[in-house]
Amino acid sequence: MTSQAYQRLLSDSLITLIWRNSFPMIGAILALFSYDLLESSLMALSDANTLTALGFTLPITTAMTAFAIATSISCNNTAVKSACQQGKCLSLAISRSLVKANVAIIIFTLLLLACSGLLLNLLGNSSWLSSLAPEQQALFLSEQSSYLNTRYLGWVFLAIIWQSNGILRAIGLTHIASKLMISWITVKAFLAIILLSPDSSYFISSMYGASLTHAISDFTFALASIAVLHHKIKLKKPSLTELKETEDKAKTTSSLIVMQQLITPISIGVITIIALSVEPSLVAAFAIIFRIEALLLLLPMVLTTSMPAIVGINYWSGHQQRANQAIMIAFITIMIMQACISIILLNQENLLSVWICPQDEVSKHLENYLMWLPWGYLGTGCALVYQSCLNAKGKVLQATILAVSHRIILLLPLAFIGVQIDINIGIFQGLMLGHLGAGILSLLLFYKHLQKKGANKAMAIQAKSS
Q1: What radius of gyration do the chain's Cα atoms show?
Q2: DSSP track, 348-393
Q3: Maximum separation of any 2 CA atoms in the chain, in Å
């Protein structure tokens, strides 16, 4: 990071700074989430069973992406902190974090390859397959296995893309990070349209085609991302001794960040089981819903890429009040934007649900989802951004508690209770209340932090005057 970019983060208007750092990532994050929805919609053109088969793999692939993002957050935090405290060692610190992160990814890849079938069965996949004809059982199990095995083997490439992107953003190269991500998703979308469209002359059975799409694009852009990163900061080969030099606090921090990211796929897995207890078509619906959710949370997701650098650098440089002001601006912006999106969707749920998925048994669930859940995203957006800011300030334990409270303690019991009350819309109402509860919790934690800071400041002034 140049000294000029560093000074801008400490002195420029916060609104201007947040806009300038966030705007380049809007297109990238929009493209990323639009691809997920495109992939699900293309698979829905085949039949509802294909979408259901994908739905059972979703908690696993989401966990993989979450772990990759966790290593990206760790690399991002390392880059931010090194830029503030030991700028001369930035290249070595980043290189060391990249090597450690990807060794962990490779170890977990081997574990997932060994446990893939068991994980699918835990999610209720075998129960669903038993309801199909024998030839369909063999077909979908084969497709699921092939899809997951290919995704496992390409996991390290996906992780490298996310890690490189996080580091580039941390050192002020947001525009380059954005261009890389948009290019990656554009190539992936192009391949998906060619391989997954039933009318295409290159059409491959949906899940096989999807796995091939991920493998080709992830491998290509992992190489491109490392090349760009090396060009900008001259990566160094860390010695074995340097790799072993990890503080106990850093190990704990990394473990907690990984835990935070894995909470979401665990929550998705339990929601999938709850959905299966209603009917298989609801599992198919959630295969699309989890992709729409990310798209509707575009602004908070963009802010999670820009706010850690703004908040982290100000916090670690001693400008805590400025860091808190940035968080307040983010909260207000999120609540206004998410409320507007919910109002817009209020009278469009029928049209959108049919457009996203032509299968009637799935579109009815999407209609209920669009009616209720977007209101809950006012809370989700605040929780996501506050969690990322807590990580940037080194308060990783608080961020983990917030994530567990949101995705496990609030969402899951309320979703289960909702299904017992109303089998049609109860799950969506329960999830909405859980998301709103997480937002309220985030605001309370932030308010408590401001009160504590104010009390400490008053005590310091009193001590100084005496």
Answers
A1: 22
A2: THHHHHHHH---HHHHHHHHHHHHHHHHHHHHHHHHHHHHHHHHHT
A3: 84
Rounded Cα–Cα distance for residues 419 and 278 (Å): 8
Residues of the chain with pLDDT under 70: 1-3, 5-6, 83-88, 242-250, 349-355, 454-466
Q: What percent of the chain has pLDDT over 90?
A: 39
* E strand residue ranges, 128-274: none
Q: How many CA atoms lie within 13 A of 366 on its CB side?
A: 27
CA distances from 198 to 158, 204, 216, 252 (A): 27, 8, 20, 48
Give 146-169 as a 3 state SS string: HHHHHHHHCHHHHHHHHHHHHHHH
Joined together, the tokens standing for residue 17 give 């700074």
Q: What is the SS3 assignment for 346? A: coil
Distance CA 163, CA 104 (A): 13
Residue 87 DSSP symbol:
G
244 phi, psi to nearest 5 deg: -80, -15
Question: Which CA distances in Å does 111 have to 84, 152, 154?
Answer: 37, 10, 14
CA distances from 283 to 57, 163, 327 (A): 11, 31, 36
Give residue for tokens 């929805």. 37
**Angstrom distances, CA of residue 148 to CA of 52, 141, 216, 405:** 15, 11, 15, 30
Distance, in Å, from the CA atom of 42 to the CA atom of 199, rounded to the nearest integer, reads 11
User: In the prediction, which pLDDT does 409 show?
Assistant: 96
pTM of the model: 0.77
pLDDT tens-place string over residues 135-174: 889 988 998 999 999 999 999 999 999 999 988 888 878 8
pLDDT of residue 323: 92
Identify the DSSP state of 12: S
Please tell me the distance from the alpha carbon of residue 256 to that of residue 250, in angstroms, as a whole number: 10
Residue 236: its H or E element: none
